[in-house]
C-alpha cells in the first residue's frame, strides 16, 4: 500500500512539474486573471447573478448555482483541515509561484471545486453557453497548477467535490420543481 501511495505522490509531482514548467507570458496573464476571478467562486456567483437579471428573475436560476458554489466551497475548505497537505512551493522551495501564495492547505483546491460547481450548474441552466462556461472553468482549474499553488491531484479532488455538489443540488432542485 505504501508503494502505491508513493507512486501516486510521485506521479502527482511529475505532472505538477510538467504543467508548471510551461511558461508563456500571454498565457500567464490569462491564468492569473482566471485565478483571481475564480477566488471563492466570485466569477460564478457574478455570472449567475447577471444571468438571473437578464433572463427574467427566476429564483431557481440564481439559487441553484449559488447553492452549488457555496456548498462546494464549504466542503473543500473543510476538507483542507482534514488533509493539511503542503502546497508545491512549500514542498520544494525552488518553486516560485506566479501569484500571491495562499496560506491554506493545498488539498483539495477550492478554486477547482467552485469552478466545477459554477460551470456545471450554469451550463445546465444555460446550455447554449455551456462550451464557454466549461472552458472558463477549465482555465480556473488549470491556472492553479500553472501558477504553482496546487498539485494536479488537488485540483482533481476539487473538481470531484464541485461535480458531486452540483449533482446533489441539481437533483434536489429537480425534486422540488
* CATH class placement: Mainly Alpha
**Please, what is the average pLDDT?**
94
Oligomer: single chain
Number of domains: 1
Structural class: mainly alpha
Question: Would you give an account of this structure?
Answer:
It is a single chain. Helix content is 74%, strand content 0%. The longest helix has 25 residues, at 152-176. With 177 residues, the chain is mostly helical. The N and C termini lie far apart (46 Å). Helix 2 (25-37) packs across helix 7 (130-146). The chain has helices spanning 2-20, 25-37, 42-54, 60-83, 88-91, 110-125, 130-146, 152-176. It has 8 helices and no strands. The mean pLDDT is 94. It has one domain (2-176): Vanadium-containing Chloroperoxidase, domain 2, CATH 1.10.606.20. The chain is globular.
Features:
177 residues; mainly alpha; Vanadium-containing Chloroperoxidase, domain 2
Secondary structure topology:
Elements: H1 2-20, H2 25-37, H3 42-54, H4 60-83, H5 88-91, H6 110-125, H7 130-146, H8 152-176
Helix pairs in contact: 2-7, 3-4, 3-6, 4-6, 4-8, 6-7, 6-8
